[in-house]
Specification:
This protein has 202 residues and is of the alpha+beta class. Helices cover 48% and strands 12% of the residues. The protein has a 4-stranded mixed β-sheet with strand order 1-2-3-4. Helix 2 links the parallel strand 3 and strand 4. The protein is globular, with a radius of gyration of 19 Å. The termini are far apart. The relative contact order is 0.16.
Amino acid sequence: GVQTCALPICTFCGQVTALDHQDVCRGASRRWTSRHDQITRAFTKTLACRATLQVEEEPQISQDATLRADFAITTENSRYYYDVQVVAIGKESARTDPYSTLTEAADAKRRKYRSLGPYFRPLIFSAGGLMEKETAKSYKALQALLGPTGSDFLSTSIALILAKTRAFSALSIAKESPYNDELAWQTTRAALRHQRALTAAN
């Protein structure tokens, strides 16, 4: 019969080192806060270039100032609030339906900002660049406001942020295993290919 090759065990967390393991490894340096802040800045800086849009960073939601969204945009007759989250979908339940994990995160955001009702838009991405289904709709609406040049710049910026963060995470756990070193390079190439496809689709 055909013999399968068992994947090696991560020397940092003791789990099987499958593709995208860097997204869930407890020993990886994932730079979550930096990644989140960079993506949020990519949105706010790109949107602020449009004279027809008013962009506010970290707008206050609750009266006691404990609840804030990442940013809000105001057009001629509406104001929408956005909050960014990048989710790892490498867990077991995500293998059959990766979008279910993204949907769970989006639902949690809506509950958190339920006082905003239909004026709240969660922006949920996977570490590899997938978008939650409603996020994809919101993203296309923002692209329409930005126009082709601004839209391409935003997509490229987000793609590079996600790819660089994943590569750094992979390399941070690739110190003791030749396989892990190859995995880091494979992850970087796969992330860049996925992001190019995402940019072309948008």
